[in-house]
């Protein structure tokens, strides 16, 4: 099979897929032949752009609106995909938020909200598809972590804890389902060029770059390439791992 169609016939769900890294992941998986379900909590008009890009790349894309933090809504939406399309083969737990604050001033509601989206959201979505993956004896669960889950970051105790929790969650799932042809891995980006980092002052950018041995920030495409590989048949013996995409910022 050609390199561009390695995922032909596979159903992929990407949470938080309408923008940023999620958007590029959707495009990568579409180019590899997967049928993409783009999840987000925004309006159809916002998602239409990525659906048009998927179609332009020769792929098939659909909008799947639900809040990953809502257990019932997540289960209902994902089980409807399984019923109507015969399964979900690839789940990318990409949805995530930040509510940054130093711990001494952090509000409990901001801790809870970050945990409910970043960590419980991954639980909700993974649980909703896992039995279908077991029955089809093939699945790829890829969660988007963060370098701060390994190294911490001032002002991000909630976010770092959610991403560290995602690693433990993934390793446990990997051990539970490895014998059924299902892999579970984390892709942990470092400093990535996004709209948010583009607005940083030059002094802050220079300080960040000084910590990266590769001498540059990563791109969303760097992350998407890692996801594309882990979703492929070539990665069938890789599970329970954290793949750092950070230019050497940390070397585990």
Descriptive notes:
There is one protein chain. The chain is an alpha/beta fold. The protein has one domain: Rossmann fold. 47% of the residues lie in helices and 15% in strands. It has nine helices and seven strands; from the N terminus they run E-H-E-H-E-H-E-H-E-H-H-E-H-H-H-E. It has helices at 20-31, 44-56, 71-85, 108-136, 148-151, 157-177, 195-198, 202-210, 220-230, and strands at 11-14, 35-40, 60-65, 90-93, 139-144, 182-189, 242-245. Strands 3-2-1-4-5-6-7 form a seven-stranded parallel β-sheet, sandwiched between helices. Helix 4 (108-136) links the parallel strand 4 (90-93) and strand 5 (139-144). The protein is globular, with a radius of gyration of 17 Å. The two termini are 34 Å apart. The model has no long low-confidence stretch (mean pLDDT 94).
Provide a quick synopsis of the model.
It contains nine helices and seven strands; from the N terminus they run E-H-E-H-E-H-E-H-E-H-H-E-H-H-H-E.
Strands, helices and their partners?
Elements: E1 11-14, H1 20-31, E2 35-40, H2 44-56, E3 60-65, H3 71-85, E4 90-93, H4 108-136, E5 139-144, H5 148-151, H6 157-177, E6 182-189, H7 195-198, H8 202-210, H9 220-230, E7 242-245
Parallel strand pairs: 1-2, 1-4, 2-3, 4-5, 5-6, 6-7
Roughly how many Å apart are the termini?
34 Å
CATH homology group: NAD(P)-binding Rossmann-like Domain
CATH architecture: 3-Layer(aba) Sandwich
Low-confidence stretches: none
Tally of separate helices:
9
- Give the overall silhouette: globular
Encode the helix/strand succession as letters: EHEHEHEHEHHEHHHE
């Amino acid at each position: 099979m050609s390199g561009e169609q390695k995922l032909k016939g596979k159903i992929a769900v990407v949470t938080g897929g309408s923008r940023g890294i999620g958007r590029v992941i959707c495009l990568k998986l579409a180019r590899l032949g997967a049928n993409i379900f783009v999840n987000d909590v925004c309006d159809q008009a916002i998602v239409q752009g990525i659906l048009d890009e998927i179609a332009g790349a020769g792929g098939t894309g659909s909008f799947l609106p639900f809040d990953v933090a809502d257990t019932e809504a997540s289960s209902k939406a994902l089980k409807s995909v399984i019923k109507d399309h015969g399964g979900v083969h690839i789940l990318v737990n990409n949805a995530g938020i930040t509510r940054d604050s130093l711990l001494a001033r952090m509000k409990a509601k901001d801790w809870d909200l970050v945990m409910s989206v970043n960590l419980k959201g991954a639980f909700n979505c993974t649980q909703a598809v896992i039995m279908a993956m077991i029955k089809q004896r093939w699945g790829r669960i890829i969660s988007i972590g963060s370098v701060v889950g390994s190294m911490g970051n001032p002002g991000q105790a909630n976010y770092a804890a959610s991403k560290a929790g995602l690693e433990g969650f993934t390793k446990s799932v990997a051990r539970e389902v490895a014998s059924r042809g299902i892999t579970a891995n984390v892709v942990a980006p470092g400093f990535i060029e996004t709209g948010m980092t583009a607005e940083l002052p030059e002094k802050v950018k220079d300080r960040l770059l000084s910590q990266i041995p590769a001498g540059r920030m990563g791109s969303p495409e760097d992350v998407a390439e890692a996801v594309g590989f882990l979703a492929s048949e070539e990665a069938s013996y890789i599970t329970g791992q954290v793949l750092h995409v950070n230019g050497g910022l940390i070397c585990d």
